[in-house]
Specification:
Helix content: over 70%
Radius of gyration: 22 Å
Distance between the termini: 77 Å
């Protein structure tokens, strides 16, 4: 009787808590694969088929074999794209392998949570190492100045936040394109970088260095309960702000899946927050807010 009563209490608490962390993490990973398909024409249909079936069939979701298959295909994708595979490809392979190994144990939720925490910590640790020990063009703001001008995804944001009109933006972009090697090439004509745009690049640099270091320390620092809320807040804040500007949605969704895996049964609101930020990144991808909302307003005010 007591055992049955305890089982009912546990079942009721789980129902109130919503989806368990491991199920949420796995489902977010599968949604990542469906919303941002990866691989060539051979691998992509298999990725999509496994992800779709596992998403609607609980037996597949919690079975290690589909995840081993996803990990193997992610590894094959890295090899096929070698040496040009991006960091998303590597992280996806590691995470799918971690899920497969976790589901092969008797404590999959704990194993997946630990792996998610370590992977997030290592991602940002290596990012910090590259940024702090690079050529110096990251720390002085040059990296973001060039990125904001050469990557078309940042044009709307650069013009709105950097205070650049169309002519100034195009002039700076053309200057950067012909001035590819800052160490050896001389500019064909002098170009003055507006102070506001320069400050935007510096602010982006400082923010990235700070949040990357904070995430690396928080997720790699040993300890659990006291640090858990800080980890969640840092990761959710990072994803909310970063992917509103840099629409690297697949990588952001993967980080959110890893973060969700670390939620406890009682952290229902935190799990909801992960879902909401996941949805927000979908809107970021589909609605170019800087280009379609703020830039027309800026042009209207200037006119």
């Amino acid at each position: 009787m007591r055992l049955q009563r305890l089982e009912r209490i546990v079942a009721a608490s789980r129902a109130r808590a919503g989806p368990l962390a491991i199920d949420l993490a796995l489902r977010l990973t599968l949604l990542d694969l469906l919303l941002r398909p990866v691989g060539n024409w051979v691998l992509r249909p298999v990725f999509l088929a496994i992800a779709a079936i596992a998403l609607i069939r609980p037996a597949w979701l919690r079975h290690p074999l589909p995840w081993f298959a996803l990990a193997a295909m992610a590894g094959a994708r890295v090899l096929l794209d070698w040496p040009l595979a991006d960091n998303h490809a590597y992280l996806l392979g590691y995470w799918c392998l971690a899920a497969a190994l976790a589901l092969s144990t008797g404590i999959p939720d704990r194993v997946l949570a630990v792996n998610g925490r370590l992977l997030i910590g290592l991602v940002f640790l290596f990012a910090c190492i590259w940024k702090f020990t690079g050529t110096g063009q990251y720390a002085d703001g040059t990296f973001f100045q060039v990125t904001f001008l050469t990557d078309p995804r940042f044009e709307g944001f650069s013009r709105v936040a950097g205070g650049l009109d169309g002519d100034t933006y195009n002039e700076l972009r053309e200057f950067v394109k012909q001035h590819n090697d800052a160490a050896t090439m001389q500019p064909r004509y002098p170009v003055e970088i507006p102070d506001r745009f320069r400050m935007l690049a510096i602010a982006a640099t400082v923010w990235n260095l700070f949040i990357n270091a904070a995430l690396a320390i928080a997720f790699l620092w040993p300890g659990g309960k006291r640090l858990a809320p800080i980890r969640h807040i840092l990761l959710l804040t990072y994803c909310t702000i970063t992917y509103a500007i840099a629409t690297v949605d697949g990588f952001g969704w993967l980080l959110l899946a890893m973060g969700a895996a670390q939620c406890t049964l009682a952290e229902k609101r935190t799990r909801i927050a992960y879902v909401l930020v996941f949805i927000a990144i979908i809107f970021y991808r589909e609605i170019a807010w800087a280009d379609e909302v703020f830039l027309p307003l800026l042009q209207g005010a200037a006119g």
